[in-house]
């Protein structure tokens, strides 16, 4: 008979998994990183993030707003102007996002070297 696991740790893993699944997709990380420089309108945000469709950006912003990371401010004008900004929670999340982005930039060459070496080993084994 298998010994029971640690129920508290299991619950923590469930909580971490659920939360990370909401906030760690590539677009969310990039959006938060851009908004870390200050509030931004939709089209400016889209240009900064690059290669994101309008539909995906709108969906990600809605999810970030729903989860408390982003605020949405509508300025009544013709046409209305909408600006997105990080909330206090979003600013706190920005710290690990920046660290992750810096790590990626610092280690990109090492990752590419590892991929090339792996591909070489696979070709050599074939």
Write the layout of secondary structure elements.
Elements: H1 7-23, H2 26-35, E1 40-41, H3 42-49, H4 54-66, E2 70-75, E3 81-86, H5 88-125
Antiparallel strand pairs: 1-3, 2-3
Helix pairs in contact: 2-5
Distance between the termini: 44 Å
CATH class: Mainly Alpha
Could you report the average pLDDT, rounded to the nearest whole number?
Answer: 92
The number of domains is: 1
Helix count from the secondary structure assignment: 5
Strand order of the largest sheet: 1-3-2
CATH architecture: Orthogonal Bundle
What is the beta-strand fraction? 5-15%
CATH superfamily: Winged helix-like DNA-binding domain superfamily/Winged helix DNA-binding domain
Silhouette: extended
Query: Would you report the number of β strands?
Result: 3
Q: How would you characterize the overall build of this protein?
A:
With 126 residues, this protein is mainly alpha-helical. The chain has a single domain (7-125), classed as Arc Repressor Mutant, subunit A. Helix content is 68%, strand content 11%. The chain is built from 5 helices and 3 strands, in the order ααβααββα. The chain has helices at 7-23, 26-35, 42-49, 54-66, 88-125; strands at 40-41, 70-75, 81-86. Strands 1-3-2 form a 3-stranded antiparallel beta sheet. It starts with 6 loop residues before the first helix and ends with a helix.
């Amino acid at each position: 008979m298998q010994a029971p696991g640690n129920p508290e740790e299991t619950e923590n893993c469930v909580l971490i998994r659920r939360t990370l699944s909401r906030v760690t997709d590539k677009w969310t990380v990039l959006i938060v990183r851009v908004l870390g420089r200050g509030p931004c309108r939709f089209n400016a945000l889209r240009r900064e993030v690059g290669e994101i469709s309008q539909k995906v950006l709108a969906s990600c912003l809605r999810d970030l707003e729903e989860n408390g990371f982003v605020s949405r401010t509508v300025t009544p004008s013709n046409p209305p102007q909408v600006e997105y900004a990080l909330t206090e929670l979003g600013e706190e999340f920005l710290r690990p996002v920046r660290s992750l982005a810096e790590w990626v930039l610092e280690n990109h060459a090492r990752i590419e070297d590892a991929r090339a070496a792996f591909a070489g080993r696979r070709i050599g084994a074939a």
